[in-house]
Design goal:
By secondary structure, the protein is of the alpha/beta class. The protein has a single domain, classed as Spore Coat Polysaccharide Biosynthesis Protein SpsA, Chain A. Helices cover 29% and strands 29% of the residues. The chain has 6 helices and 11 strands. A 7-stranded mixed β-sheet has the order 5-4-1-6-10-7-11, sandwiched between helices. A two-stranded antiparallel ribbon has the order 2-3. Strands 8-9 form a two-stranded antiparallel ribbon. It is globular, with a radius of gyration of 19 Å. Bound molecules: cytidine-5'-triphosphate and the ligand C[C@](O)(CO)[C@H](O)COP(=O)(O)O.
């Protein structure tokens, strides 16, 4: 398949951002005069291999329609579900009504506004270059772990008040560990099947790749930069502000 094909992207933005605990849901926190969701959607609007952008919204989202991106012809808003995986599934079920279900779709968190266009292009190139004989069903951006990683064990220390502490059980070999990022790219019909199968079994699915893994499929890791952070904690807002201003400067 030529890498100039056009792919839809689902942007899950139906969360409430409880861990950031801002005055608004985190996707509506403003950085440099634009909401986090606008930064994220804008990257995909500017990318020449992206077609429809399906933004998954919380049922009580009254902010999205006030943004100018809401009126863009490529952008479509759909109500999401209780968990991220439910929102992604709703988005997929919506796209297959108007796109070939055997085609690839990208899924990218609204909460990752610092992804850059070159990495999206690389992911698409690597994913569409997979041959059927490779037995790999799709690809995700991910970043190799660079820190020393400890596995914790819980212990009860009974000096004074009885309390639980974490102590080190062992040190994990890091050379095979990667941080999963988004975008993640799979064929729509295969992803729907994998998610539905996982949900039916009650498996926790924190990303699309885990649904595929649980179906016994192989997923390609495409190395992305550590700057593609997910805004999860309050301190991530300052980090995203730094990365977004660096991206804006390099685009000038
Ligand atoms: N029911 C949900 C929950 C999450 N998301 C989206 O999935 C992405 C990644 O999830 P996370 O960072 O966990 O976001 P929140 O659920 O909003 O955060 P928290 O867990 O702190 O409440 C976010 O863009 C979020 O809006 C979604 O579309 N639907
Ligand atoms: C998909 C994801 O962004 C990969 O890092 C992540 O799994 C989504 O949310 P989580 O709350 O960090 O699991």
């Amino acid at each position: 398949m030529p890498s100039t094909s056009i792919f839809p992207v689902i942007i899950p933005a139906a969360g409430i951002g409880s861990r950031v605990a801002a005055a608004t849901a985190k996707q509506y926190v403003s950085i440099g005069g634009k909401t986090i969701l606008e930064h994220t959607v804008q990257i995909f609007l500017s990318h020449n291999q992206i077609g429809k952008i399906i933004v998954m919204l919380h049922p009580e989202d009254y902010t999205f329609t006030t943004l100018s991106i809401a009126n863009h012809p490529q952008v479509m808003a759909v109500i999401g579900g209780c968990e991220r995986v439910d929102s992604v599934l709703q988005g997929l079920r919506c796209i297959v009504n108007f796109q070939d279900p055997t085609q690839f779709v990208l899924v990218h968190d609204a909460a990752r506004p610092c992804v850059n266009a070159q990495d999206i292009t690389r992911l698409i190139e690597r994913c569409t270059a997979i041959a059927p004989s490779d037995n790999v069903c799709g690809a995700i951006l991910a970043c190799p772990v660079t820190d020393t990683i400890k596995k914790a064990a819980s212990t009860k220390i009974s000096s004074g008040h009885s309390q639980h502490f974490s102590i080190i059980d062992n040190t994990i070999e890091r050379s095979l560990l990667w941080h999963a990022q988004t975008p993640q790219m799979f064929r729509m019909n295969e992803l729907i099947h994998a998610i539905e199968t996982g949900l039916a079994k009650g498996t926790k699915l924190s990303d699309e790749a885990s649904a595929m893994e649980n179906c016994g499929k192989s997923v390609l890791l495409v190395e992305g930069p550590s700057s593609n952070i997910k805004i999860t904690k309050p301190s991530d807002i300052a980090l995203a502000t730094f990365y977004l201003s660096a991206i804006n400067k390099s685009n000038k």
